[in-house]
Amino acid sequence: MTALRNRIAAARSLLFVPGDQPDRFDKAAASGADLVIIDLEDAVAANNKERARENAAAWLALGNRAVVRINAPGTPWSEADLAMAAEHGSSVMVPKAEDPVILAELAARTAGRCDLVALVETALGVERVHEVCATSGVARAAFGNVDLAAQLGVAHDDHTALAYARQRLVVASAAAGIAPPIEGVTTAVRDADVLRADIAHGRRLGFTGKLCIHPNQLAAVAEGFAPSARELEWARAVLGAGESVTTVDGHMIDKPVLERARRILAAPQAPHTAT
Length: 275
Known about the structure:
The chain is an alpha/beta fold. The chain has helices spanning 3-10, 25-29, 49-61, 78-87, 100-109, 123-127, 129-134, 145-152, 163-176, 192-205, 218-224, 229-240, 255-266; strands at 13-18, 35-39, 67-69, 92-94, 116-120, 138-143, 182-183, 209-212, 247-248, 251-252. Helix content is 45%, strand content 14%.
């Protein structure tokens, strides 16, 4: 893996910043987010698309780093967005990711300079998600819960309605050998309880990061996707018992359990649990 792909794989908090608001770029970069996503798509009106791309190009030209969410393939702006991202070696978030052929073409056109984050947010994308995740150049998948919910006619914050789609992303990512997927957005930016519930639900299903739309969501995301104190204690007890031990606290210990314990201890820890 390249260093940038490692950053994408390990990122827990990914913060969107609108491409037509360049005054927020430096603030987003200093916010503590693991990755900043300059959004040229949904956050930008059609008459501001060109200006947003120019803003992103100017900021990236100064040596700043970000993921660029381009406009969807087939739109009037997509090709220029991709070319700009490739020029600066930026990773690319691809909205409406549902066609592995198109994703492979995007990766090829950047000559491998841009890792892709496939944003799965359509019914077809969910049904094809294994092929999407297995496409060369795709570093990670992300879940577009708001767009998918609109297509399905369900509430975007309904955990039950979208559980099938979420689980498909988790399984497909593991099958393709890429990092676990990134959870979608929580639109209730001032409701800490809703945010914590969304984080806990996504983590329980196997997501290891989350898309954020406001800086005040970052701390909860960093903490929520880090190993808990209880998990760290369990992992240390399992590994401390030695590989020849078959049970710890009455639970069977075998190779998969040992591997899970190692993953927990290798994961970045939240500041309050760091040792």
